[in-house]
Amino acid sequence: MIRDTHAVISARGAKRWEQGHPWVFRSDVVQPPASPPGAVPVRDQKGRGLGWALWSPASEISLRLIDRDPNATIDGEWWHTILDRAISRRAPLNTAETTAYRLVHGEGDGAPSLIADRFDRWIVVQFLSAGIEAFRAEIVGALQSITGAEGGLARNDASVRSREGLERRVEPLWGTVPQEIEVAEYGVKFLAAPHTGQKTGAFLDQRENRALVGSVARGRALDMFSYHGSFALHLARSADMVTAVDSSGPALERARENLALNGLTTVTLTEADAFEFLRSEVARGARYNTIVLDPPAFAKNRASVDGAIRGYRDINLHAMRLLETGGLLYSASCSYHVTKPLFLQMIQDAAAAAGRRIVLRAITGQPLDHPEVVTIPETGYLKGVLVEAAD
């Protein structure tokens, strides 16, 4: 018996696609294709062609829709078109204002499980599924052709690759990518570490929010969970003095390098637990004019949401108590499982507990290069607020 190379999915899986979400889970694959990882045509149980998907045999997310046309040809030319369309959307960012931004945001750009970030003249790529890994050569060729980048690096050390049955390693794709890359971001400079840094070398999704907060900062400023000092660099351009707090000594050493790179001398780096530091500042009656809370993801899964909300509420409550009248707080969450409504409710609860009249100045999200597709909730994870203490 010859097995079909098509994938057949259930009515539930087909409905998910029709509603705009590209994933079909293993439980909705009625008949897996007799194909290695790559692109496969997909049908429903009535034999109707639904399009093409990336096939990952070992993954819980077995199929990821990439083209609704059953007659499409998924080849190098197809990938060039998709990637050129995504990269063209970033044209407004291709200026002297910033030299580091995301070129391809996975499902948000119709290229599921593919990440590509630009750091000046170099590109760092992540192939996060077995299906996308099968098109490495086509994707690398398209990225080289479209961007003209001097070098490319694969940061394929993400843990999700293990669930796809893939090796985890960092390896060159073309040319040579430096260990450190100096990039510019709205008037400040910082060092990205593409081979060893978080994500692909630096956190790029807060770029516009860092510039926003830097433009309104004043007086005494506090940057919590500072990491490499990305917010502190922007705060220091307008604030009189900045205290940057992080629990990681090595992270603060990198922050020190970034401060020196910008010639900034008004920032004090403090190694401390954020929760303990905030409580101690409240206890001693400290006051700040500008505060940033940009913690790591507190909720890694649905089961941890309640605990995460308690953590967010705690740090926001203490930050609100530390604000001078008229002071500004920028608070963010990068936990996908903490939804925007939950996050805003937490801000409301913290304000009530602080006994302050907290005024909403702005609700922030992801920038242009991290598109959030409204029918794919997983593409949107970053949310934040800028609030003012009115009394």
Description:
- By secondary structure, this protein is of the alpha/beta class.
- The protein folds into 3 domains: 7-67, Archaeosine Trna-guanine Transglycosylase, Chain: A, domain 4; 76-181, 2-Layer Sandwich (Transcription Regulator spoIIAA), CATH 3.30.750; 205-389, Vaccinia Virus protein VP39 (Rossmann fold, 3-Layer(aba) Sandwich).
- The protein is 29% helix and 30% strand.
- The longest helix has 18 residues, at 305-322.
- It is globular and about 70 Å long.
- The model has no long low-confidence stretch (mean pLDDT 96).
List the helices and strands and how they pair.
Layout (H helix, E strand, L loop, with lengths): L6 E3 L1 H8 L4 E3 L3 E3 L6 E7 L4 E7 L5 E7 L8 H13 L11 E6 L8 E6 L2 E6 L2 H4 L2 H12 L3 E6 L3 H4 L5 E6 L6 E5 L2 E5 L14 H10 L3 E5 L5 H6 L5 E6 L2 H13 L5 E5 L2 H10 L4 E6 L11 H18 E11 L6 H15 L3 E7 L18 E7 L2
Parallel strand pairs: 1-4, 9-10, 14-15, 14-17, 15-16, 17-18
Antiparallel strand pairs: 1-3, 2-6, 4-5, 5-6, 7-8, 8-9, 10-11, 12-13, 18-20, 19-20
Helix pairs in contact: 2-4, 9-10, 10-11
